[in-house]
Write a structure and sequence with these properties.
Layout (H helix, E strand, L loop, with lengths): L1 H10 L8 E7 L4 E6 L15 H20 L2 E2 L8 E3 L11 E3 L6 E2 L16 H5 L6 H17 L14 H9 L8 H4 L3 H4 L3 H10 L10 H4 L3 H6 L8 H10 L4 H14 L4 H11 L9 H11 L9 H8 L9 H8 L1 H6 L3 H12 L9 H4 L8 H4 L10 H14 L2 H20 L11 H5 L12 E2 L1
Antiparallel strand pairs: 1-2, 2-7, 3-6, 4-5
Helix pairs in contact: 2-4, 4-8, 12-16, 12-18, 13-16, 18-21
GO molecular function, one term: protein serine/threonine kinase activity
Organism: Noctiluca scintillans (Sea sparkle)
Protein name: Non-specific serine/threonine protein kinase
């Protein structure tokens, strides 16, 4: 199942879906090892009952992940609290965030998904009865069951033990379900269930409609009032992000690719902050930022004295796979540009990009291994690297430095344009001119900062 999970998980890119950084196959043991982002908080099954606001927040996050999956034709097929993992250890007063994991039995929707799969107690009735193919609506049923369990700490259709170990009896209870009143045998004495708001029960009722045609789809469920009342506050672009996006437009293409590789394979700190901004910009909840999304977000935070960002130019620079939209990784790569280059941490870009490319950690990388990661227009830059043998970090760093020098306007054009605005502003106040920035070459020579370590979760 793990081998099946890799290609599907690799195509998904969302703030609430676990990121896969690398994988390896042991041919001798016939085993796969996945290196995923570290999620420290444990799964939601261990939490027991949550406050309603917390439950709504977590359900909303998983729903965003499912909307992204379904928009790309991917079905998870095993949604449950065990597969919702918290990003950090819960602390008093802290907001909880989670990510969807375990795509081991996920599949692409191709019209032939009629096999009985999933975890008993969460499987939709039409799948048990084999009256319909597996669609996104079956994932929504599982999410409805999950919502009840997170709110109450109780599986609404009971456990296998509750049915004397008889799987058929357990599944029969699911197929005979008609409305929330049927939960009475297991939830009737639950204070948490009795205290659930009418809006929460309305949301659950619409996910647990026995008729999949009448059941809410993911994109429609996102607009339910229960989720809207409890969802996290919207986060706009910060001034640092806006500065980075403005400069990223003129960045050398090789540098842009390196930033993308760092985010995709190495990870970055503050990923949750970028995720919150990404989700706020993604107005339709499909996990992609369109040109109109960009324009609206930039317009909300732009000022006459700040950097100017053209949405079309930014999209052209950051859309490395030419889809016409930005995925999460592309967005984060653009947002961290100022941190690595304008912030004077170019050496960190060099070291982290090499670490990300060096998948087996042997200190050597070959051109053939990395060529598919770069655009055709970067070929002349890659030609500077040894073609007939592996190379180390020193040669890689030298190649990037030459690429930077060939297109040094990336920092100059942004800084000088911005300082020109500052000069005009200061003249109006009878002040002296703004000081000029240091030469970009000086910035490149800043001593390397220690690489940020992110402990991987290996399963």
């Amino acid at each position: 199942m793990m081998k099946r999970e890799i290609p599907l998980l690799s195509t998904l890119d969302h703030p609430h879906i676990v990121k896969i950084y690398a994988y390896a196959e042991d041919m001798v043991k016939s085993e796969f090892v996945l290196i995923l982002e570290h999620l420290a908080g444990g799964d939601c099954h261990r939490m027991g009952a949550c406050r309603e606001a917390t439950a709504a927040r977590l359900v909303h996050q998983v729903l965003l992940a499912l909307a992204h999956c379904h928009s790309r034709g991917i079905l998870h097929r095993d949604v449950k609290p065990d597969n919702m993992v918290l990003t950090a250890v819960p602390t008093n007063g802290a907001e909880l965030d989670c990510k969807l994991i375990d795509f081991g039995i996920a599949a692409r929707r191709d019209g032939s998904q009629r096999d009985l799969c999933g975890t008993p107690g969460y499987i939709a009735p039409e799948i048990i009865l084999d009256t319909a193919e597996f669609t996104g609506k079956a994932d929504m049923w599982s999410l409805g069951v999950t919502a009840v369990e997170i709110l109450t700490g109780i599986l609404p259709f009971g456990t296998l033990e509750d049915h004397g170990g008889d799987l058929r009896t357990w599944m029969k209870r699911v197929t005979q379900y008609e409305d929330l009143e049927d939960f009475e045998p297991f939830l009737g004495g639950s204070r948490e269930w009795q205290s659930c708001s009418p809006l929460a029960k309305d949301f659950i009722r619409k996910l647990l409609n026995p008729d999949p045609e009448q059941r809410l789809a993911a994109k429609d469920a996102l607009n339910h009032q229960w989720l809207q009342e409890h969802k996290a506050a919207s986060m706009t672009l910060t001034s640092e992000m806006l500065q980075s996006l403005a400069a990223y437009v003129d960045a050398p293409s090789l540098v842009r690719c390196c930033l993308y590789i760092i985010v995709a394979r190495h990870g970055v700190p503050d990923l949750e902050k970028f995720g919150a901004a990404f989700l706020s910009i993604d107005t339709d909840g499909d996990g992609m930022i369109s040109r109109d999304d960009l324009a609206k977000a930039i317009d909300q935070v732009s000022t006459w004295w700040g950097p100017s960002v053209c949405p079309d130019q930014l999209l052209n620079a950051a859309d490395l796979d030419h889809t016409g939209c930005l995925n999460f990784t592309q967005f984060v790569a653009a947002c961290i540009y100022s941190r690595h280059v304008i912030g004077g941490q170019f050496d960190l870009l060099l070291s982290q990009s090499f670490e990300a490319l060096d998948a087996d950690r042997d200190g050597q990388v070959s051109v053939d291994d990395i060529r598919p990661l770069f655009r055709e227009r970067d070929s002349p830059l890659l030609q500077r690297l040894p073609q007939d043998r592996p190379f180390g970090q020193g040669e890689w760093s030298a190649c990037l430095r030459l690429a930077w020098q060939d297109d040094s306007k990336a920092v100059d054009s942004y800084k000088l344009g911005f300082m020109g605005v500052m000069d005009d502003m200061l003249k109006n106040f009878a002040c002296s001119q703004a000081p000029r920035p240091s030469d970009p070459a000086d910035m490149i020579e800043v001593p390397a900062q220690p690489a940020i370590s992110r402990s991987p979760l290996i399963i």
